[in-house]
Specification:
2 domains, about 75% helix
Length: about 290
């Protein structure tokens, strides 16, 4: 954890919010104090001494922030501890927010500066959002998903559950060759109903999870269907029904894990491309500003 692993989840999230607001207010108060003693006007002018200084500092911070990309590409090299890099990335990003706001004079300019500032704000807020998700969701998964597995392998593991379900039902409705004189545990129309339930609802759900649109994705509906089957089958088949219900419940936990895993990482789909676009526009903005400065 980047904000103190000994704190509670609520405490870590509170620290992130407090730090974000506190650092921003500190930058604004600094600019206001300078105006009070006559060092610069209010609001700060982007082309004034303070605005230019903040623009240079902000640009250097953004350049440092983007170094985390090659750091990830060469993570096998000894380029410093990942934890220290991430702490520096987070705190530098928070400090950069008031620096850029002061540079912009707390307002928007022309089309280029407006787009650049909007992208910068989106990058900053998406980064804060991602940091909050990293404090909350891992703890939630640990508490609510005891059967947690590797997210990328859930469908493959679901296929193994489906194979077990097929074998279990087949064992109920057939007899082994060496037991020809015996009768299957489940036969007749009830066997056909059990096979239909397996093929139409259980196996697709175990293989694909919520994507299968199976009613077993809903706990109440799954409980009703298994209870109805459990009452209909002979007592000898009920342990197998209990096991099939356990498989469905395990897949349901994996579905929840997949949802939480998505929210844990999807902010990067916004944060990373916007960071690259914002950095490119910032360089263009700096080049154009130097021509008229």
């Amino acid at each position: 954890m980047l904000v103190g692993k000994n704190r509670s989840v609520r405490g870590r999230i509170g620290a992130i919010v407090f730090a974000s607001i506190g650092v921003t207010l500190a930058g604004v108060l600094f600019a206001a104090a300078g105006n009070a003693v006559g060092l610069w006007t209010w609001p700060p002018q982007p082309s004034g001494p303070l605005g230019v200084a903040c623009g240079v500092i902000g640009g250097l911070i953004v350049f440092f922030e983007m170094l985390i990309l090659p750091r990830k590409w060469y993570r096998g090299k000894r380029l410093g501890r990942t934890r220290l890099w991430m702490q520096a990335h987070v705190w530098a990003g928070l400090i950069c927010l008031p620096v850029i706001l002061v540079h912009a004079g707390f307002g928007f300019g022309g089309p280029l500066t407006t787009v650049t500032l909007v992208l910068f704000l989106l990058v900053t807020f998406s980064g804060i959002w991602g940091l909050v998700m990293q404090q909350w969701l891992p703890q939630k998964m640990l508490e609510e998903i005891p059967g947690e597995s590797i997210a990328a392998q859930l469908d493959r593991l679901g296929g193994s559950l489906a194979d077990e379900a097929v074998r279990s039902v087949t064992a109920l409705i057939t007899v082994r060759p060496e037991e020809e004189a015996a009768e299957p545990v489940v036969s007749g129309s009830l066997a056909a109903e059990l096979v239909a339930f397996r093929d139409a609802h259980l196996v697709p759900y175990l293989q694909e999870g919520a994507r299968s649109k199976s009613p077993l994705a809903m706990p109440a509906e799954a409980e009703q269907r298994f209870a109805r089957l459990r009452e209909a089958v002979p007592p000898a088949a009920r342990p197998t029904l209990d096991r099939l219900q356990e498989l469905a419940e395990l897949r349901r936990r994996w579905d929840k894990q997949g949802q939480l895993h998505f929210w844990l990482h999807n902010w990067l789909l916004l944060h990373l491309p916007l960071s690259v676009a914002m950095s490119a526009l910032m360089v263009l903005h700096a080049v154009r500003a130097m021509k008229f400065w």
